[in-house]
Design goal:
By secondary structure, this protein is an alpha+beta fold. It has four helices and twelve strands, in the order αααββββαββββββββ. The longest helix has 22 residues. The chain is globular and about 45 Å long.
Length: about 300
């Protein structure tokens, strides 16, 4: 009988633990975990006992482009001696919040193709005239074929200098204003970075005529939709606040800047006007280079 009882006890232990819960995403974990933690807007669980598995904390943390899980009603903690769990999210709502965030993080990586290297692209001030700088920016990224293996060039507009950051580092830095790589430019804001950046294109005015009054309806970067669908232009390039800044010649396969000036809000809120005067530039300010991605930018503060 002792052997039978021991066998029965072991059988009950193993059968009782045989069903494993599915592995939770980070968002679901944040929604399910107890320990009285609160998420965004959530309150500590329980008023007397410790929070249980369904306990406190708001929904899962949102990834880039995602939204936090909706707060649900927590049930009483299994070991709680006090009131029922507070405004905790259920595991399922935590998964809903984090799921889209994780997916959009992957979608952003696919669209942007971050490279963990620092660009050596040349950035120089060609000349200064009437309060404006003419910048040469080599954002050729080694040419069209090598571009996927090379990072963006990051610049700060007030000094016209390159900021030495890799793509992953730049995604968390407010030390740059404009990112450039081949024909794609974007600002440090929205899905482009943690700054306050944005831009709007002003047509029908010369560079001298553009002023701070034109800083209306600035667009922030939205590389993917809320459903994590990439926003691409007809050339299959990611859509940015700089939009289609160029006209494309199918005969010569060259890009020509459209007539107009961009008002750009920098990462820390300062306003600038930026005119793209060349895509085939040289460090001497001429626009005669054979390969593209070599910008001439006219920049002034507003």
């Amino acid at each position: 009988m002792k052997k039978y009882g021991a066998f029965l006890g072991l059988w009950l232990i193993f059968t009782g633990c045989s069903e494993e819960e599915p592995e939770a995403t980070p968002g679901a974990q944040a929604g399910q975990s107890g320990a009285g933690q609160s998420g965004a807007g959530g309150s500590d669980a329980g008023s007397g006992g410790s929070s249980g598995e369904a306990g406190a904390g708001a929904g899962g943390e949102a990834g880039v482009g995602g939204s936090a899980g909706a707060a649900g009603s927590g049930t009483s903690g299994q070991g709680g001696a006090g009131a029922s769990g507070g405004a905790g999210s259920s595991g399922s709502s935590g998964q809903a919040g984090s799921g889209s965030g994780e997916q959009c993080t992957e979608a952003l990586k696919t669209v942007l193709g971050p490279v963990d290297k620092v660009s050596a692209g040349e950035v120089t001030v060609v000349k200064e005239e009437n309060g404006a700088k003419l910048l040469f920016v080599d954002a050729s990224a080694g040419g069209q074929q090598a571009a996927p293996e090379n990072p963006r060039v990051y610049i700060e507009l007030s000094g016209g200098k390159r900021v030495d950051l890799s793509d992953p580092q730049a995604s968390g830095s407010d030390g740059w204003d404009l990112a450039l790589k081949r024909a794609v430019l974007f600002t440090n804001g929205g899905q482009g970075g943690p700054g306050e950046g944005g831009a709007v294109f002003v047509e029908g005015k010369s560079f001298e005529e553009v002023s701070g009054a034109d800083a209306k309806d600035l667009k922030t970067e939205a590389f993917v939709s809320e459903d994590c669908i990439p926003n691409l232009d007809p050339m299959n390039s990611v859509v940015t606040s700089f939009g289609e800044w160029y006209d494309y010649n199918p005969q010569t396969h060259q890009l020509s800047p459209k007539a107009g000036v961009y008002v750009v809000r920098g990462a820390k809120g300062a306003l600038f006007k930026v005119e793209i005067t060349g895509y085939y530039g040289k460090p001497d300010g001429t626009n005669t280079a054979m390969g593209g991605g070599r910008y001439l930018l006219r920049v002034a503060g507003l």
